[in-house]
Amino acid sequence: MRKIRLVAILAIAVFTVTSAKAQFSTGADLVSSYVWRGVPQDRIASSTLDINPSLGTPNVQPFVSYTIGGLTLGSWASSSFTGVVKEVDLYATYAFSSALALTVTDYNWGFTKSYFDYEKTTDHIYEATLAYTGSEKFPISASINTMFAGADKKPSDATKAALSTYIELGYQVTPLVKVFAGGVLGESNAYATTKAGVTNVGIKVSKSIAITDKFCLPVYGILGANPYSGGAFFVAGITL
Q1: How many domains is the chain partitioned into structurally?
Q2: What's the gap between Cα 164 and its chain centre?
């Protein structure tokens, strides 16, 4: 009976991976600096307290994903040229429609312990995200992101979960231009806040540069600011 069950499981796995509707995807971004939701990540990684940190260093941000039906499983990472920033995340996304999706993410940017340490002192942070991407007729996007477990603790009390929550609204001005604004609902180490505030406002402009008749290089620029900290940033990126 055990052998039959094992063969059945393997058969289902092979069928799932080789299904015509399933697909793998991979790629990478090269960015001039890594700014996440208005917070420069070299600032967090180096634990500096300057409200106007340096523009940061270039980062390589690879990803790989596997999609079957409405479910996507994937990993995303970021590594700076100086080695200050190191992040490896895992995620699972279920798309209810082309515009609405739920994502659970396992973040790890601490690396003070083994990556496989999932005890109470783990570096991992778990977040649930509900995102609406809008449509051509209604080009407004919205997302709510809440860290619900792991190393997300309150700055004022490291024994209590911060439940860090970030909300963002966006408007697609044109297919290549988007404006956005987002903020945090309370104190959070992840966002370097001690209270609620707006941490991320800006504009993203994308463009494809023709290299050959058959190949175009997607590039983008993000001009933004963090009103809470008083900082500003400009990120240039290339998608490979």
Answers
A1: 1
A2: 15
